[in-house]
Amino acid sequence: MALRAKEPKSIEKRLKALFYGSAGVGKTTAAINFPKVYLIDTEKGSENSQYTDILAKNGGVVFQTSDFDELVTEVKALLTEPHEYKTLVIDPLTTLYNDLLEKSAIKNGTEFGRHYADANKQVKHLLNLLLRLDMNVIITSHAKNEYGANLSVLGQTYDCYKKLDYLFDLVFEIQKRGKDRIGLIKK
At 31, is the pLDDT very low, low, confident or very high (cuts 50, 70, 90)? Predict the structure, then answer.
């Protein structure tokens, strides 16, 4: 068998970013301001005029679903069909992950975290597809408290699959401070 390695080439890398934060801090607004967005909206938030105007201005489109399998099917279509979109936004992944956990708990029970194992397997499959996608990828997530010793609150973290941050080049905690919105770089 012949060796298959090739000389390395520098390629233009696509952005992979995670935005998380409390409700109303601007996660969706920040994400849909990228060029040519293909928005997968899992909470029907894109129906608000503030979002439809931004999407229209930037040449974006919306696909609404609350079903994880439909999300995966749509990502596979983006991988295989020609299109002009430059940025995939999944807003937010939290709702679909929680739905996966519920369905997995019914199917497998919750003993020893069985429901997490099944749900996490499905999310890992999605993440592998996203790595192959030649687009910017931005996923938003709800936030939850992060706890330390004696249940003291250390701050906020994303509320989703625990290893989600491994996929991303950048992880931002979006915050609202007065009238300003800021992104704290977490990775």
Answer: very high
